[in-house]
Design brief:
Strand content: under 5%
Number of strands: 0
Number of helices: 4
Largest sheet: none
Low-confidence stretches: none
């Protein structure tokens, strides 16, 4: 094969020239396989101090810390003045418009019973005799489909 393959560079021995060409091709293929991109396509490092979300979050944290400090200062003053806050929630619930709610509840129940009665009195639009005939036809078709074919050849 080395005799029929033309050498690019002039050599004295065609066989050794062919070997040299094959080695150069193999090296070139390895270089292509191991090639890496020159461009850096990775994400850039985030700079949190420049983003508006970070500034907004930082301002919120500062506000919360100021509120906590103020609450702590007020709590200390209350303890110093010996004024205690009653945190027990034992008060009587007062329902607003209880009579109107009861009327609405009765009205809804009456509407529900009326609809239930109306639904139960509806006549079927599909006659029983026709239903039985259709059922018989379907059973007949089912029997014919499930029967095995005869072995007559």
């Amino acid at each position: 094969m080395y005799r029929s393959y033309p050498n690019v560079s002039p050599v004295a021995n065609k066989y050794l020239g062919h070997k040299l060409l094959l080695k150069a091709q193999a090296d070139h293929e390895n270089h292509i396989k191991n090639a890496r991109s020159v461009l850096n396509l990775s994400k850039s490092t985030p700079r949190f101090h420049l983003s508006s979300n970070f500034r907004h979050k930082h301002v919120k944290e500062h506000e919360l810390s100021m509120i906590k400090q103020e609450n702590e200062r007020l709590r200390r003053r209350m303890i110093k003045a010996e004024s205690l806050v009653d945190t027990h929630n034992n008060y009587v619930l007062h329902s607003l418009n209880i009579i109107q709610r009861q009327r609405e509840k009765i009205q809804h129940e009456n509407e529900f019973h009326r609809l239930q009665k109306q639904i139960s009195q509806v006549r079927p639009s599909y006659p029983v005799r026709r239903f039985q005939q259709d059922y018989a036809k379907k059973q007949d078709v089912k029997k014919r489909l499930s029967r095995f074919p005869s072995n007559d050849k």
